[in-house]
Write a structure and sequence with these properties.
Blueprint: E1 2-5, H1 11-23, E2 31-35, E3 50-54, H2 58-74, E4 79-82, E5 95-99, H3 116-132, E6 138-141, H4 144-153, E7 158-160, E8 184-189, H5 198-208, E9 214-219, H6 224-235, E10 239-244, H7 248-256, E11 258-262, H8 272-279, E12 283-287, H9 290-293, E13 300-302, H10 307-318
Parallel strand pairs: 1-2, 1-4, 2-3, 4-5, 5-6, 6-7, 8-9, 8-11, 9-10, 11-12, 12-13
Helix pairs in contact: 5-6, 5-10
């Protein structure tokens, strides 16, 4: 097996790559192409694996494609897995699988408009995918809705192959009487990208004025607006714990203490927090969207673009007898703006 993952170093892609390498998900790894910023998990057995590190520059990644072509010629019976969403630049001698884990690369899905750098990168990757997908033997995806979109637009076999990282955390908190201790009322494992709708969540928490419940938000980064909103929420005596760059084991600890997961994303390829919340048996506030409904029906449904809808859901969760309403928009596969 030849694993090509030269453009993965952070986020959900890194979590899945860690799982693939440590669990031998694709079998014995003969060659791995990795980003120089990525460090393989310490429990991985790679003593007999050739590792090629690629610098995160376009010229180095083009050169790595030439090296990948050579690796394929030297190992024609091996399977090549392009794990970073993009098909190879050249037609390879080996069976070639493209593992697509970024929903924004799908045909018909608009590129995110967080900033010009992200927008340009996704446009480039969408174009690369469209031009070179003929070099792939088949495409693997994590959810049925992505499979359906691809099958409508691309003449290639598309297989459903979700990778769910194994959760090994077992330190479940108990009270002195032996009951499950749940000190966090609401938790959201999210990001500051626009499609995650973190601003709407913070606005909903602020306007809900729920002062006797604890909120925990875990994100990959924050900006000035998010920081200022968090400060304003705390001024209202609302219990908000905003955490950045949290290790997986610490996230599992937080989840084990939590009652309800809030998901406000409007588009996801898989939505790892959903599966983590299911593992810890949390209640769920989430959108009525395919990437959610494929695995679980939310206890309370929200419109992720509407702070009013999220606020109503928070209040209804803690006071289910209240009859509150908010206007929900009709959502399909996802919402991009």
């Amino acid at each position: 097996m030849i694993l090509y993952a030269s453009n993965i170093s952070t986020g959900g892609g890194k979590i899945l790559l860690d799982e693939v390498i440590s669990s031998s998900y694709f079998g014995k790894l003969e060659v791995i192409y990795l980003d120089t910023r990525y460090s393989p998990p310490t429990n991985a057995t790679l003593s007999n694996t050739k590792i090629v590190y690629v610098k995160p520059k376009l010229i180095h990644r083009i050169w790595s494609q030439i090296m990948l072509y050579q690796s394929s010629r030297e190992n024609p019976n091996s399977t090549v897995v392009c794990f970073g969403n993009l098909p190879p630049l050249f037609k390879l001698s080996s069976k070639t699988i493209v593992y697509l884990q970024n929903a924004f690369i799908l045909p018909g899905i608009a590129s995110p408009k967080d900033n010009i750098k992200t927008f340009s990168r996704i446009l480039f990757e969408k174009l690369w995918f469209k031009i070179f997908i003929h070099n792939a033997t088949e495409i693997w995806v994590q959810t049925k809705w992505m499979k359906n979109v691809l099958e409508e637009n691309i003449i290639k076999p598309v297989l459903l192959k979700p990778i769910i990282p194994l959760i090994k955390y077992k330190n479940i908190p108990l009270t002195e009487s032996g009951e499950l201790k749940k000190s966090i009322d609401f938790i959201s494992i999210t990001g500051a990208y626009r499609h995650k709708n973190l601003i709407q969540l913070l606005e909903a928490i602020l306007e809900s004025n729920i002062v006797d419940k604890k909120f925990v938000i875990v994100t990959d980064f924050v900006n000035c607006k998010i920081n200022n909103m968090a400060k304003e929420i705390r001024k209202r005596n609302i219990q908000l714990d905003l955490r950045i760059h949290v290790e997986r084991n610490e996230i599992y600890k937080l989840l084990s203490h939590s009652k309800c997961m809030i998901i406000t994303s409007s588009i996801e390829s898989f939505c790892l927090p959903l599966h983590e919340s299911m593992h810890f048996n949390l209640d769920l506030i989430a959108p009525h969207l395919p990437f959610i409904l494929e695995y679980k029906t939310p206890d309370i449904t929200i419109d992720p673009l509407s702070k009013e809808s999220i606020k109503v859901a928070l209040i209804q969760y803690i006071e289910p007898q209240k009859k509150l309403h908010s206007e929900d928009r009709k959502l399909k596969n996802g919402i991009t703006r």
